[in-house]
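User: You have something folded?
Assistant:
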Amino acid sequence: MDDLAPSGYRCASCGARHDELPLSFQVPAPLAWTPEHANAAGSIMDDELCVILGEYFFVRGIIRIPILGHDEHFEWAVWTSLSRENFDRTFDYWETYGREELSPMFGWLAVSLPGYAESTLDLKTMVHTRPVGERHLVELEPTAHPLAVEQRRGITWDDVERRVAALLRG
């Protein structure tokens, strides 16, 4: 794979050369999801919602990290747990216009993001519903965890370049 350069990068997924630095990365499933769950009763997984064994409920959302001096954000598409009640409410309003007026919901970050010395699993979150067709926003509890600090304070463009280079290298 080519190293990152101002002129772009070679994508490990598609093999094509891209001019823009990718600013969004996703985690494919909650950490608790296993391949065995795919055929288990009471378990479903799609691009936005996940239920494990009818007991554990998750929604995908976006953690936005401001890039200092830029209009863009670095984004993580992550999974957050929800209570059954909040998951049911999310599901009931999934295609309802005006759903963004719903109050935020408590959850636990259900993924371990690469590049952080401290685990990101089980950080406290508030999930903010957005308009139909948009992923929910995930707000981290304002702690001293580096991810929470980044979300509040932002990161530099140099930080973004280093992070993206490490993520593309795997």
